[in-house]
Amino acid sequence: MTGIVHAVYDMCVYDAEVCDPPHRARVNSSMNSSSESRRGKMSNVFIHPLAVIDQGAQIGEGTKIWHFAHVRSTAKIGAGCNIGRDVYIDADVVIGDRVKIQNGVSVYHGVTIEDDVFCGPHMVFTNDMYPRAFSTSWTVSKTLVKRGASIGAHATIVCNVTLGEYCMVGAGSVVTKDVPPHALVVGNPARVIGFVCKCGQPLRREIRRTSEAVTLHCEKCDTDTVIPMNDYMKMVR
Ligand SMILES: CC(C)(COP(=O)(O)OP(=O)(O)OC[C@H]1O[C@@H](n2cnc3c(N)ncnc32)[C@H](O)[C@@H]1OP(=O)(O)O)[C@@H](O)C(=O)NCCC(=O)NCCS
Ligand SMILES: [Zn+2]
To answer: Is residue 200 within 6 Å of ligand 1 at its C-beta?
Structure first.
């Protein structure tokens, strides 16, 4: 517990709303100093009194961080995010704006999350392809989650992959390869079974096809999405 103190929430440096009941914040001891400079950066941030935010962590305007979350000192979280209960944000992780991270998710070193991403409850990132408990040197393998992607509950993302823009990973899937933009993947290992619109709706109506691409129409939001033929051919059924 070295370096960690329990502080009365009123003394905390954030300009955050205080949850009811306003018990205690668990913050690094150094947070008792230089409150002025941090106030500017953290306006309108909501930090639940039972969250742990290490000094130096950057948290954008309007972001909410809930019970028992832990944000490491070199992490950067954008504006308008929702960081759920029991979420862990590791050192050097970068998270964009309006990202929703549901309860129980650990975002490990090596993971980058762009704007508007949804991480479903208890999904899992990884960052060590060949883990050993006794290894003294290991390589961090990266994961990039691109803008607008959604990851279903309890999915596992094996590292060294990119999840394309607006793709959707089904609940419980195990992703082992890059996921094309707008692709819908399910299963273990996850396979492309279709494509989804930016609005999240499965795209079931084909309206145009060339040798280069297939255009799919969304009945829900009345927009077309063009899927490059290389990606379309990855669909298994
Ligand atoms: C993947 C998903 C988007 C598919 O929705 P859909 O397009 O309506 O798909 P369907 O229900 O028509 O299912 C199509 C096929 O995929 C299968 N399937 C659907 N979801 C699956 C999943 N997560 N894993 C494995 N297979 C799945 C279905 O059993 C069906 O198989 P079949 O054709 O052999 O019968 C949805 O099932 C899902 O997992 N959503 C994520 C939910 C979630 O985790 N939300 C988090 C916030 S609470
Ligand atoms: Zn749509």
So the answer is: no
5 lines ligand 1 (CB under 6 A): no
Instruction: Output the residue whose Cα is nearest ligand 1's atom 10.
Output: 202
Report the separation in Å between the CA atom of 103 and the middle of ligand 2, taken as the mean of its atom positions: 27
**Nearest Cα to Cα of residue 235 among 187, 199, 185, 200:** 185
> Looking at ligand 1, which atom is closest to the CA of residue 194?
7
Residue 144 in contact with residue 125, Cβ under 8 Å?
A: no
Q: Rounded to two decimals, what is the model's pTM?
A: 0.87
230 phi and psi, to 5 degrees? -55, -40
227 belongs to a structural domain: no
CATH code, domain with 54: 2.160.10.10
Q: Which residues pair with 227 in a beta bridge?
A: 214
pLDDT digits (tens, 9 = 90+) for 52-74: 999 999 999 999 999 999 999 99
- Residue 230 inside a domain? The answer is no
Number of domains in the chain: 1
Confirm if 60 and 77 have CB atoms less than 8 A apart. Answer: yes
